[in-house]
């Protein structure tokens, strides 16, 4: 392949919680240096909700192609974030209960919990213990407003 046609990738350090795992483990994903939706690099949310089922992820120094269907959540602990959105209590399949805040301000048209959970994409952004979480909707059993 001609190198002129490759889009440079930006490694992003995250932690991953996979089905059957005992907890979060360090990993690295590779974001595009050019977003299709805005100026600048691709965000983690864009990467996870791009529609690809299988993505390259570095685990324990080796690149694996993982099926996102079996990923419960990713966590970004690289910076402290403040929650500013609506509070939810999430019950996740195969995981514990979380009280989280939405990772975005919900407009009136999507202000209800149900509306937020039904937005497009597989992964939703939440803030928990000052870290950004990306939770796979497939694993959310219930959500209660707090």
User: Main β-sheet: number of strands, strand sense, barrel status?
Assistant: 10 strands, antiparallel
Number of helices: 2
Could you list the spans in which at least 5 consecutive residues all have pLDDT below 50? none
- The portion of residues assigned to helices is under 10%
Number of strands: 10
Strands ordered across the widest β-sheet: 4-3-2-1-5-9-8-7-6-10
End-to-end distance: 52 Å
Run of helices and strands:
EEHEEEEEHEEE
Q: What structural class do you assign from the helix and strand content?
A: mainly beta
Tell me what you see in this structure:
With 146 residues, this protein is mainly β. The chain folds into two domains: 9-76, no CATH class; 87-145, no CATH class. 7% of the residues lie in helices and 45% in strands. The chain has helices at residues 44-48, 113-117, and strands spanning 9-18, 25-32, 54-59, 62-67, 71-76, 87-92, 97-102, 123-128, 131-136, 140-145. Strands 4-3-2-1-5-9-8-7-6-10 form a ten-stranded antiparallel beta sheet. A hairpin with a 2-residue loop joins β3 (54-59) and β4. The chain is globular. The termini are far apart.
